[in-house]
Specification:
Low-confidence stretches: none
Largest sheet: 7 strands, mixed
CATH topology of the largest domain: Aspartate Aminotransferase, domain 2
Strand content: 15-25%
Helix content: 25-40%
Shape: globular
Radius of gyration: 23 Å
Bound molecules: pyridoxal-5'-phosphate
CATH architecture of the largest domain: 3-Layer(aba) Sandwich
Mean pLDDT: 95
Structural class: alpha/beta
Number of strands: 17
Distance between the termini: 41 Å
Number of helices: 16
Strand order of the largest sheet: 4-12-11-10-7-5-6
CATH class of the largest domain: Alpha Beta
């Protein structure tokens, strides 16, 4: 062992760890010193060498109230003293029941027809499966409705969409870098442009861009509605695409179109759910009630893997029948409704209430908006997009022409590296620097984060000719 390895035995050993990391070029990874997180508290992560970092990604979009929250820890210990896991196949359990009841009370509501309120909860384990389940439920809904609707089996999804990494979710995806390689494995979807107005897919300015994008959706619906089961949308913001925001009012227009053409609206709130946008769910900003809603990431406050797909009474009812009609929803996972996960989710919701998380985050959202204002004048900041505490700063080679830096320069990666050296952990999406702190972040830590990101952007962009 070298001296350095002696000082850091964990790293020395784990450098050749058999872990194959997600979205990672492992050759590069193996040649880097790795940061191994051993502890967390609040917004801070601590590595095996005792270095402290601010968690600027909420541990990739999952953490809500900070790490090692006493109430969450206590709730999990209480549940552990009862049972860690029991199945939902043929049995039920209390945390799963209680959580389902809570979820339907906080879900977006106010549909004109009570049959179209979200009143049923199907559990799974992660965002991708929550979306897969939404697809299968929507497909089966039309199959069960009757002969005439049986041809409704296709889905509309958006350019730049990200709905997860399983095959069904990838089929809906619209990010070439992630999705194109798998094309031969995927089922066909009808792709429509999203009104990402900084780089309008139709080369128009706002509001013409939005109107034309809505038209494109309507055209696709008009042409194909007899064969379309559902439309899948990330409400307000296409997160993984680089925090691409849609103009206010757009989501509502899509809801209206789905109703007009008898298409199920599936909201993927995996990233936006649980307060990230400043309301419990993004759909609430536009008083939209989807027919199906997929949730995961923040559901357990960032503690355990859990997901849920919520549906309306109308959809649920279409699956009811005599046993021999075989209308049951034939789908399930080993850990469906896991009591520990559900207990964490219940504690998460209780903290939202007790700590008034949604109310207390409002000044933080306003602060970020104000603090970022002057950045718009910076030479290489092309666009700043923010919804709640989801923030994307897009750096560009040429501001006027909106010319992106070539991906091979890895400017986003460099900025995040510079930020890490200053004690802030981030992960970029191409040339977009993403900041997504836990909702519980203190004003002081938020200030610190913005200072570090700003300095890192300036440092890196000024060093590239
Ligand atoms: C992260 C994400 C998913 C996938 O969730 P996983 O838990 O990573 O499978 C799906 N949709 C959106 C919008 C996401 O951000």
């Amino acid at each position: 062992m070298t001296k350095k390895e002696k000082r850091n035995p964990i790293n020395a050993k784990r450098n050749r760890s058999p872990i194959w990391h997600p979205f990672t070029q492992m050759r590069e990874w193996e040649n880097e010193t790795q940061t191994i997180i051993v502890e967390g508290k609040g917004t801070t992560l601590i590595d095996s060498e005792g270095k402290h970092y601010l968690d600027g990604t909420s541990s990739i979009w999952v953490n809500i109230h900070g790490h090692r929250h006493p109430a969450l820890n206590a709730a999990l210990k209480r549940q552990l003293n009862k049972i860690a896991h029991s199945t939902l196949l043929g049995l039920s359990n209390l945390p799963a029941i209680e959580l389902a009841e809570k979820l339907i009370t906080i879900a977006p509501s106010g549909a004109s027809d009570p049959q179209k309120e979200l009143t049923k909860v199907f559990y799974s384990d992660d965002g991708s499966t929550a979306v897969e389940i939404a697809l299968k439920i929507a497909f089966g809904f039309w199959q069960n409705k009757g002969a005439e609707q049986k041809q409704k089996h296709k889905f509309i999804s958006f350019h730049n969409a990200y709905h997860g990494d399983t095959i069904g979710s990838v089929s809906l995806g619209g990010i070439d870098l992630f999705h194109e390689a798998y094309r031969p494995l995927l089922f066909e979807t009808i792709k429509v442009p999203a009104p990402t107005c900084y780089r309008c897919p139709l080369s128009l300015d706002y509001p013409a861009c939005e109107m034309a994008c809505v038209d494109e959706v309507e055209k696709a619906m008009k042409r194909h509605h007899r064969t379309i089961a559902g439309l899948v949308i990330e409400p307000l913001i296409q997160a993984a695409a680089g925090m691409l925001t849609a103009p206010p009012g757009y989501l509502k227009k899509i809801r209206v179109l789905c109703d007009r053409y008898d298409i199920l609206m599936i909201a993927d709130e995996v990233a936006t759910g649980f307060g990230r946008t400043g309301k419990m769910f993004a759909c609430e900003h536009e008083e939209v009630v989807p027919d199906i809603m997929a949730i995961s990431k923040g559901i357990t406050g960032g503690y355990l893997p859990l997901a849920a797909t919520l549906t309306t009474q109308e959809i649920y009812d279409a699956y009811l029948g005599d046993y021999e009609e075989f209308k049951a929803f034939f789908h399930g996972h080993s850990y469906t409704g896991n009591p520990l996960g559900c207990a964490a989710a219940l504690a998460n919701l209780a903290i939202f209430k007790r700590e008034q998380t949604l109310k207390k985050m409002q000044p933080k959202i306003a602060y970020v908006k104000r603090a970022l204002m002057p950045w718009k004048r910076w030479a290489h900041v092309g666009d700043i997009r923010q919804v709640g505490l989801m923030v994307g700063v897009e750096v560009v080679a040429d501001k006027k022409q909106k010319t992106p830096y070539p991906l091979t320069l890895r400017v986003g990666h460099q900025v995040c590296k510079a930020a890490k050296a200053q004690g802030l952990l981030l992960r970029p999406l191409g040339n977009v620097i993403v900041l997504m702190p836990p909702l519980s972040v203190s004003m002081r830590d938020l200030e610190k984060m913005l200072t570090i990101v700003g300095q890192a952007i300036k440092k890196v962009t000024s060093s590239i000719r």
